[in-house]
Inverse folding.
């Protein structure tokens, strides 16, 4: 008998500039079978970001219509813009054994935890990882190094990062991104462990 497992819904959070997006992109290069849950946002694209690849860029009216249609697993307002995770990006995939990375903020992760208490399927799939920078000074250096944000936006992100980092104990795993290659290696190790977790296997191994 072929043993089937549910996919991993890997909830990845961390302050802007922590490197969580870069880590997840590198991991998906190494593991092309892993999917990325493309979030919706009402903010404008940055740099070379593309609609339908990095985010679904929506107007506030479009976002509200999706809320009314109950299309989101979670959504929240962050830095003055709305972000949300579509059910269509996650639930069908994990049901078929496909691993999905969700890059969401601490507010969204809290709502996913609430969902886990109500939905056994999602509870069996979800794993929570917090990505942190090695220091506040390094975080500021990374944000300024992007060259895409105004001083006002940078200051807002730095202020919000302190609150976000203070909530790292709400997560099951902490990944400190002090050196990129090492952080990717540790992330890969977590992914391997998640795949072996007994809570995601659908059948009895002795069946």
């Amino acid at each position: 008998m072929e043993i089937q497992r549910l996919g991993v819904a890997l909830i990845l959070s961390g302050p802007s500039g922590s490197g969580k997006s870069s880590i997840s992109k590198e991991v998906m290069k190494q593991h092309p079978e892993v999917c990325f849950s493309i979030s919706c946002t009402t903010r404008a694209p940055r740099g070379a970001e593309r609609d339908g690849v990095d985010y679904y860029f929506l107007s506030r009216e479009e976002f509200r219509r999706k809320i009314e249609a109950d299309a989101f697993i979670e959504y929240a307002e962050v830095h003055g813009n709305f972000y949300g995770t579509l059910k269509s990006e996650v639930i069908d995939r994990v049901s078929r054994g496909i691993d999905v990375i969700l890059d969401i903020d601490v507010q969204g992760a809290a709502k996913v935890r609430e969902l886990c208490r109500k939905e056994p399927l999602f509870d069996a799939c979800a794993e929570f990882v917090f990505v942190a920078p090695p220091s506040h000074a390094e975080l500021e250096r990374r944000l300024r190094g992007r060259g895409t944000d105004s001083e006002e936006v940078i200051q807002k992100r730095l202020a919000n990062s302190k609150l976000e980092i203070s909530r790292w104990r709400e997560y099951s795993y902490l990944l400190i991104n002090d050196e990129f290659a090492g952080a990717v290696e540790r992330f890969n190790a977590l992914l391997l462990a998640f795949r072996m977790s007994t809570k995601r296997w659908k059948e009895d191994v002795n069946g």
Notes: Residues 75 and 169 are 21 Å apart (CA to CA). The chain has a mean pLDDT of 90. The first helix runs from residue 20 to 30.
